[in-house]
Amino acid sequence: MFRLPHLVLILSLLPVFSHAQVLDNDSSRQSNSLKKQEDSAHSNFVSKMQQFAAATHQQTINERNADKAGIVQNEIFENLKKTMQHAKTYLKNGIDTVGISGDISKISEWHAIAGDGIFVNMGSAQTYRNLTTSYNLLGVLQKRISHHKTELDNYHHKLSNFRFQIDSLASDSMMFAFPGDSAALTKYLGKLATIAREISPADSILQKAMIDVEALQTKVNMESYRLTTSIDELELYQRQLHRRTWSREFTYLWQPTTYDRSFTTILGYSLAKSWLTFRFYAQNNYGKILFMLFLIFMTTLYIRSLKTIYRQRDLIRNDYEGQLVLRYPVLTAILIIVNVFQFIFPAPPFAFNALLWSVSAVSLTLLFRRFIIGYWMKIWIALFSLFIAASVNNLILQASRIERWFMFMLAASGILVTWIVFNKRKNWRQLREQWIIYFIGFLLLLELASIIANCYGRYNLSKTLLTSGYFNVVIAIMFLWTVRLINEGLELAFNIYSTQDRKLFYLNFQRIGNRAPKLFYLFLIVGWFILFGRNFYAFHLVTGPVQTLLSEERSVGDYTFTINTLLLFVLIMGLSVVISRIVSYFAADRHLNNEHPGKTEGTGIGSWLLLIRIFIITLGLLLSFAAAGIPMDKLAIILGALGVGIGFGLQTLVHNLVSGLIIAFEKPVNVGDIVEIDKQSGVMKSIGFRSSVLSTWDGANMVMPNGDLLNSHLINWTLGGNRRRMQLTVNVALNSDLEKVQVLLQKVLDSDDRISKQKKPLVLFDEFVNSSINVKVIYWLNDYRNDITTKSDLIIAIQKAFQQNDITFH
């Protein structure tokens, strides 16, 4: 395009061109010589104008390119400044290379400690405990070095990107498009010098940082290779040791040893390894530890609140028979939570497990004090002491002659204790948990086998049998008493607490029940097998393929999954249902206030909590789909298809199915509950997806769609603990001794075990009727099914009591 000065110059030449045309027309009749001169002048003028136009066009192009180069150069300068600023900020807030270097040195030292007794000072044979502890320790170190490796790789990659960006911008061809004007060139060269001065130190810092990181990467890679090699060797040693389980590893116990290392040195390295594994495990699982402590605190509050209610009602027994759970709330909470929730810790080291078991056992010992008889208290203290000794012995990781004799005496002590127990069978009747006898008998067999294996040089087998024996009996006793204490707590709450209260977190014990669910017993049995099996390497050989099977990827069409993801799907859905059911305890309709009949508490909270329950179920469904890797677009297609199906006439079916889900979540009725639906009474026989079956008292089976069941006025007697309030009216003469009548009726009611003693029966004088007085007898039945027989028996007993005391009926 032409600029304004060029346009002015061209316009100024236009009059000259017009004048030349006029002269040419006027001189057309002149001579040929003059015409040739004018034609020559005109030709020269056109040529000059063409040359001028070409020069102007080229100048315009050059100026445009210069302007474009200036814009691009300014953008490059700005990008260079931003990139350098980002690089400086990243370097300032980058990783702590000094700390990583120090940690790598520590990992190398810990690696050396883990290898003691295996790669150096190994003695004449490997030990299973040493291999296991070192394997766990090296596994933690491997994860730690892998974390540093990933951190350094990402850091180096980021620094390389910064250098690449700076080099790319600095080497751009537009940076070398210099202006033609000398003043502009001088100004541009000044900018280049400024940028160069800024780039040079930043580039030097980046280069130095990359060199330092590369040096650290070399150290990390070397240490990672050493750790990987050591772990592979340990796995090989463990397999070889397992194949030689029944082979002799050391000399006979009475023969001299071929290798003798200082016992204090062995003990020092063993404690160092155990401490490192415990420390690293606690650091990696501090969140779970805090969660367990929180559960202990909440359980303590619950038991303390329950104890306060019992104390206020003067129901606590001096001997705490059936109420041991209330004796020491803190100790009870520790025992229950630690025993139940220790399984949230994946593959804990022995030192960590031993600490949890010891804390639980100490709590149980204090609860036993002056509760169980002296004989069994001594047996428990003996078993617990031997358990502590076995735990300490299990921390010793390398074999020695001193330890082998200690193992012999420890096993012999266990045999002596079991012999005392079986020699005094008359005391078995005083044992509160009879199953303990079987575990004590199992202890006897294991300790006998341990002594035999120890004497004949089977050290690893002997130690495994020795420790497993004591662990099995102590853990079994703690689990049995854990179940007993849980059942006591539920029973105590169920018996005295029929309404919800803030002190007990508004728990609805009519829904919880008075016994632990059967699934809980199965959980503890499986847990005992897991804890017992961890002592044997064969357990890991069995669980290894199972873990591989669970983590192996499978494909169905385009969808790839593992069994672990499916289990995670079920787990998340199960947790959402459990959390929803816990919320249902709060959302459940409260009972009438006992102190102010007719007044309800917190009527508005239920609807809000029900909305929360819907949110929990929905969130659980979405999270479970995400965890299983199911694409959300396919879920949307499924929901869309269901919507179309519902629109085409499946409303009734979907209504019943959804009602079945609501019944499953809400649990207004369970199989086996005694219910009353639309004046039909009976027992719930089954609850299906679409319909449910009620077995009536007449013997018929009534099939009812879930939608109708949910919309009916349902009376669930079982939900209230099968309790029912009954009323009986008695007419006595006007001249009767009313106080005597009241005492006689109260005595009759108290003598019937089918009538609840927690809710005292009432004898009330209602009104005068002709020549008699109406007496209302109000009582609560423990079991709703005994209403007719109880009422009949009460009438007989009342008539007999009145006849014997000259009370006249009217």
TrEMBL record:
The chain crosses the membrane at residues 286-303, 324-344, 350-368, 380-399, 405-423, 435-453, 465-483, 519-539, 559-587, 608-630, 636-658. Residues 728-808 form the Mechanosensitive ion channel MscS C-terminal domain. One of its GO terms (molecular function) is mechanosensitive monoatomic ion channel activity. Residues 1-20 form the signal peptide. It is a multi-pass membrane protein. Belongs to the MscS (TC 1.A.23) family. Keywords: Cell membrane, Membrane, Signal, Transmembrane, Transmembrane helix. Residues 652-718 form the Mechanosensitive ion channel MscS domain. It is found in: Cell membrane. GO terms for cellular component: plasma membrane. This is MscS Mechanosensitive ion channel.
